[in-house]
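Limitations
The structure tokens in this dataset are predictions for the assembled complex, not deposited experimental models. Users should treat interface geometry with appropriate caution, especially where small molecules or nucleic acid strands are included. An illustrative entry is reproduced here so readers can see what is and is not provided.
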Amino acid sequence: MSGEKLRVVLVAPRNPLNIGAAARAMSNFGFFDLHLVNPYEVAFREARSAVHAGAVLEAAREWGTVAEATAGCKLVVGTTAVGHRELKHTVRRLEAGGALIRAALAAEEPVALLFGSEKFGLSNEDMSHCHWLMRIPAREEHGSMNLGQAVAVCLYELIRMETGGVSMAPAPGKKLADAAMVERVADLLTEALNESGYVHSDSTPVKVRRLVMRMGLGPHDAEVLLGMVRQVLWKVRKG
Amino acid sequence: MSGEKLRVVLVAPRNPLNIGAAARAMSNFGFFDLHLVNPYEVAFREARSAVHAGAVLEAAREWGTVAEATAGCKLVVGTTAVGHRELKHTVRRLEAGGALIRAALAAEEPVALLFGSEKFGLSNEDMSHCHWLMRIPAREEHGSMNLGQAVAVCLYELIRMETGGVSMAPAPGKKLADAAMVERVADLLTEALNESGYVHSDSTPVKVRRLVMRMGLGPHDAEVLLGMVRQVLWKVRKG
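Predicted assembly:
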């Protein structure tokens, strides 16, 4: 498996100790590509200047949006320790989801693994960028997990050696369009809807993105659909 | 598996945050029996008085020796993230050792799982109380793991569900929109494309239908998409 293809994305982390702990777990398990979306500035600075910060934190990149942080990824997975929230997404237990991620990485496909803020986890907007969610099988009663521990447990699952004989031969995984492409399709479709007078609410862009995500478009289909929407949008504007 | 039979033993922990993190990981994964051997007094006190200390820390017991802390256990296992030290003991990777511990717990045998101090790990004297050692498969280059993360990863391995091939089949049959509905979406989309001047050939309707088929729309998504296309088509015609 190629650890290089996994992007760990921390969304809005607040605590320098947690950022450092996440980076340390990555280094422990052989993952080096850390991205932060809107980190609390002071926290990021403190984490970087800590004694044991190390190479992962030094090379970490900062972004303003989840879309930017996941651009180019073929598979975007959000993590949650909570099961009872009403989730619109497919939720897989870590054991099963981890196998799918391993399969994607084995096929050299870039994967983004998202972790939400310590206090609130991933927002609905954050989740709308995800193909599916992965649940760490912690007790519901306890609530959320510590961020650094959640990262450690997920990454361990990815490098874990299958002891159970043959292995769980990963479903031959359909090849998916990358996240930036899905984003373009969703954006353009939202625009076409706006200009057509489709009943609009603040949540429309999120709903549209989720819908497009659920289509599970392959690279070619995404191109074709983008061309279609572009043409229709042109006509709508011209009309 | 009975979580009650597992005793988590922290030997000479120094940092209150780590003690708290270990307790939190235990609660997350359903283990409640925490023991400390010669903790740094101030650290233990601080950990207990922390806001999120919770029941595990409150009930934690303190001992002067490893022998006392492990008394009555049928199986005593030491943990290490380091492989290169000259170890007199059998060392098992976490995946394999975890299976043995699960088996012991399933047989209602009390098990102690030892974690060493943040700085030095378990001493030779500590290890001499262990039946064998369990190694978390972290990169050797990186050195030791964070204590709270080590506890989280080991406990996760214990509660991990064996997926053994069976289950990771591609999510239990998603419900699909019926053929007539797919047809309507495809027809309307083809019409919108025609009216927008999308390059047309005789095969366009077929291509559009195939594309929509590949989206694997659920019943609700099909309705939503149909509504969207209808609105855009209305606008295109009106324009």
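Some entries come with short summary sentences. For this one: The radius of gyration of chain A is 19 Å.
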